[in-house]
Design brief:
The chain is an alpha/beta fold. 29% of the residues lie in helices and 14% in strands. Strands 7-6-8-2-9-12-5-13 form an eight-stranded mixed β-sheet, sandwiched between helices. The two termini are 26 Å apart.
C-alpha cells in the first residue's frame, strides 16, 4: 500500500474526540433511548471499577505466546549488513581476512565472526528489513517504539519494553523485585512515554573492568527502616499512598513513590548471595568468557537477571559505534566490533541454552538501518542505507536459515521472500515481539492522555503490519 493511502486511513482513524465549539448540547428522541439503554447496562456492571488501561482488539488474532522474556539488542550507528549478517563478497573491496564460507546454504564471514559461524543453527536472519529513515536519532527511536517518532503520538509513544511492562503488569508476583523493563548500557533508550514511571526502563551500565561493583548505593544504613517509616508517616498523602484519587499534587509525586518503592525492593534484597548480587555482579572469569567488553558484560548481566526469575521480562542492550563512514575495515573499526559481537552474543546464546532459558527467551538484534553496498566511499567507509537485517533466536525460532532475500549487491529484491510479499518494517518486528510475548498486537489502549486511543502497532488492525510468523515455520 502506498504511503499516502496509509496516511489517509490513519487520518480517518484519528479524528479528534472532542466536538467542535458550534455543536451545542441538545436533547433528541434518539439520545433519550440511548440513555435508557445505558442505564440498564450500567446497572448490570455496577460494582466494576473503570480500568484506565482497558484495551480493545480490532482484529481476531491469536498471539503465538512462545516467549516469557525478550532480550532486544540495538546496534546503534547502523552496522553494514553486507559485511556481517547478509554477507556479500565485493571483489577488490572485502578483506580476505573475512574468509567467507558457505555453511548450510548461508554465506558467512568466518574470519570476522568465527564463534557465531559454529552457532548458525541457533538463530535466524531476516534480510528483507528496511528502515523508514536515515537519521540516526529518528531511526533508533523508531526501532524502540515501533512507530514514527515525528507522528501525532510519537512524542508520547512508549518504548516496547514499557508496553510489555504494562501489558504484563497483572502477571507480576509479590516476589518480583526487579522492574519488568531493564535497559543495559542504554542511557539514551526511549522511555515510558505517556505511561507511569513504574513502567520506565531501569537503566544500569555493567562494566567488565569492575565485575564485582554491582548496583551502587544499595547498602542500607542502620537507620534506614526508621527513616523510611518516618517518611511514610509524614507525606503518604502527598505522594498518593492509599489515597483515593491519587496524589493531590499530581502524577509527578506518584512517580516518585514508584521510584522509592522500587529502590527499597533492591536495597532489601542486596544481602550477600541475594538476588540483586546474583543478577548484577559477576566474576572476572565470566567477563572474559563474554569477551572482556562492556557489551559482553551487559549480555552476561541480562542472562543472570533472567536466571533469578524476579520480575524482569524485557531487557534492552545497546551497543554503539557502528557508524563507519571512514576506514570501515581498519582494525579498530568493523573487525573490532565484529569480534565484540561474536564473543558476547555467542556466550549469551550458549548460556541461555544450557540453562534452558533460550526456550522461553526471544533474542532480537538489529540496527536502525544499514550501510551502502558495493564499493566503498571516497573516505573508505559505507554511508547510510535503508536496507538492513534483523536476527532472531530462542523461543522456538527455527534457526539455521534466512528469511527474505536481497540482490547480489545487498539491495532489496522485488520479492521480499515472506508471506506479506514486501519489505519488513520496524512495525512488523514490533508485532513479532508482542505476539511472541502473548500480547495482542492489534489492540488499542484507552489510557493515553489525548483520548485518541493508542494502537500497540499502528495499522496492525488493518493487517498492514503483523508478526513474522515464518520465524517459527
Amino acid at each position: 500500500m502506498r504511503e499516502q493511502e496509509q496516511f489517509d486511513r490513519w487520518a480517518i482513524s484519528q479524528r479528534h474526540p472532542r466536538a467542535p465549539f458550534y455543536a451545542r448540547p441538545h436533547f433528541t428522541r434518539r439520545m433519550f433511548f440511548r440513555l435508557c439503554g445505558g442505564g440498564v447496562t450500567a446497572s448490570m456492571l455496577a460494582g466494576r471499577p473503570a480500568i484506565a488501561g482497558d484495551a480493545s482488539s480490532a482484529a481476531l488474532v491469536t498471539p503465538l505466546n512462545k516467549a516469557r522474556n525478550v532480550i532486544f539488542i540495538l546496534l546503534a550507528g547502523a552496522p553494514s549488513h553486507i559485511d556481517t549478517f547478509d554477507f556479500k563478497m565485493v571483489d577488490g573491496v572485502t578483506p580476505a581476512e573475512f574468509k567467507p564460507e558457505t555453511i548450510n546454504g548461508i554465506t558467512w564471514p568466518t574470519g570476522l565472526m568465527p564463534n557465531l559461524a559454529s552457532r548458525l543453527g541457533s538463530f535466524a536472519i531476516v534480510r528483507s528489513v528496511r528502515a523508514w529513515a536515515l537519521v540516526h536519532s529518528l531511526a533508533q527511536t523508531w526501532t524502540q517504539i515501533g512507530r514514527n517518532p515525528a507522528a501525532a503520538l510519537g512524542d508520547i509513544a512508549p518504548n516496547l519494553g514499557s508496553m510489555v511492562a504494562i501489558e504484563k503488569d497483572s502477571e507480576r508476583l509479590q516476589s518480583d523485585i526487579f522492574p519488568t523493563f531493564l535497559a543495559l548500557n542504554s542511557n539514551q533508550a526511549a522511555g515510558p512515554g505517556y505511561l507511569a514511571a513504574s513502567y520506565a526502563p531501569f537503566k544500569f551500565n555493567p562494566a567488565y573492568r569492575t565485575p564485582a561493583a554491582g548496583i551502587p548505593n544499595t547498602n542500607a544504613p542502620a537507620a534506614f527502616d526508621s527513616r523510611w517509616n518516618l517518611m511514610h508517616a509524614l507525606d503518604d498523602g502527598l505522594r498518593g499512598v492509599n489515597v483515593s484519587g491519587g496524589s493531590p499534587i499530581g502524577r509527578a509525586a506518584e512517580d516518585y513513590e514508584h521510584f522509592y518503592e522500587a529502590a527499597q525492593a533492591l536495597i532489601k534484597n542486596s544481602a550477600p548471595g541475594g538476588p540483586v548480587e546474583k543478577a548484577f555482579k559477576f566474576s572476572a572469569a565470566d567477563a572474559q568468557r563474554y569477551g572482556n567488553t562492556n557489551f559482553g558484560a551487559a549480555c552476561l548481566v541480562a542472562k543472570q537477571v533472567l536466571e533469578t526469575g524476579r520480575g524482569a521480562r524485557y531487557i534492552q542492550i545497546t551497543e554503539g559505534g557502528w557508524d563507519m563512514h571512514t576506514n570501515i575495515y581498519a582494525a579498530t573499526q568493523l573487525p573490532a566490533k565484529g569480534k565484540l559481537l561474536d564473543d558476547g552474543l555467542s556466550a549469551l546464546l550458549d548460556d541461555l541454552k544450557s540453562s534452558g532459558l533460550l526456550d522461553q527467551t526471544l533474542v532480537v538484534m538489529m540496527g536502525e538501518f544499514g550501510r551502502t553496498v558495493g564499493k566503498l566511499s571516497g573516505a573508505q567507509g559505507r554511508d547510510h542505507y535503508l536496507q538492513q537485517f534483523a536476527l532472531f533466536a530462542g523461543a522456538g525460532v527455527t534457526g539455521g536459515r534466512t528469511i527474505g532475500s536481497t540482490t547480489a549487491d545487498g539491495g532489496l529484491t522485488a520479492d521480499s521472500g515472506w508471506s506479506r510479499g514486501r519489505d519488513i518494517k520496524p512495525e512488523d518486528i514490533e508485532a513479532t515481539i508482542y505476539s511472541a510475548m502473548g500480547i495482542d498486537w492489534t489492540s488499542t489502549r484507552r489510557d493515553d492522555p489525548t483520548g485518541r486511543g493508542f494502537e500497540l502497532v499502528p495499522f496492525a488492525a488493518q493487517n498492514i503490519y503483523g508478526p513474522i510468523n515464518e520465524l517459527w515455520a
